[in-house]
Amino acid sequence: MHAAQVGHLDLNIVDGRFGILPTLPFVPGTNACGTVVASDVHPIGSLVRLNGSGLGLRRDGGWTEHAVVPDKAAVATPAGTDPALACSFFSPAGTAWAAVHDVAAVGEGERVLVTGAAGAVGSMAVQLAVRAGAEVIGVVGRPAKLEHVPAGAKAVLAADLSAEALGGPVEVLIDTVGGPVLAAALGLVRPGGRATLIGYSAGREFSVDLADFLLADVALLPVNLMTRGRGLAEVGERLLAEIASGELTLNIERYGLDRLEEAAERLRSGAAVGKVALTMD
Ligand SMILES: NC(=O)c1ccc[n+]([C@@H]2O[C@H](COP(=O)([O-])OP(=O)(O)OC[C@H]3O[C@@H](n4cnc5c(N)ncnc54)[C@H](OP(=O)(O)O)[C@@H]3O)[C@@H](O)[C@H]2O)c1
After folding, report:
1. Which CATH number fits domain 3-88+250-279: 4.10.280.10, 2.40.420.20, 3.30.1300.10, 3.90.180.10?
2. d(CA 69, CA 202)
3. Which residues form the Enoyl reductase (ER) domain (predicted)?
4. Per residue in 111-151, pLDDT tens?
């Protein structure tokens, strides 16, 4: 193995908060990247990224130096690709693509509000919405993250969020944070608009007054990469190439295996900027 992602899903599994849990003892790590040492299918010495087939969930995953995985959990990856990028890009890039293009169907000239805009999914969503010709406002929870909202978007602190600060309501909300942030941001979408929900780091629940919800007339739409991932394979390869070439930006914080605790805490606390990866090299 060269690198493995430390993702929210991994931490939810490790913390016992995911709907499916592994039998202990087990090795976490749902996404990883390594060089093939032995296989009947994949060329020895080739670079592959690993995920799916229950990796890091129903069977041992990638937070390790050597992993044994089913052939179908390994996908050939262009030689020379940064392993930390190879195991990190698909979740944020695929999810952001699904939210911007497939679920919200962001159109040119629309106003789009993205929460968690310095996060991995949020920053990708900002860039894809800007590229789709939208006017994008990126919301962050802490001042230190304002400078990490990608160029092309207006950066706003969540505490300052209001219809006045936005210059009026938006057509689309892409929410990666959930909980009270979703509740507050929903009120900023104009009637007939769309709100997509991607994550719930800030809270699994929010309450809604159904009378207000009907009057607001905003469609609240979930984005689920697990069900949409297969259909995004081709798009994913394109996005990987664009991130590798610098056309799109995905920040990755890297930690050696011996710094796993620090890596996990950066992600858990919301302090991390972009993806978090373990590197074994
Ligand atoms: N639906 C799907 O298929 C799918 C796919 C991928 C990811 N996800 C989910 O989408 C969410 C975002 O993923 P990501 O990779 O972009 O994560 P990320 O890079 O860690 O960004 C999440 C952002 O949420 C904000 N946040 C607010 N309260 C938080 C809290 N209590 N703990 C941690 N973060 C908090 C932080 O931004 P501020 O500091 O600016 O508040 C943070 O940057 C996660 O919940 C993830 O599980 C869902």
Report:
1. 3.90.180.10
2. 33
3. 4-278
4. 999 999 999 999 999 999 999 999 999 999 999 999 999 99
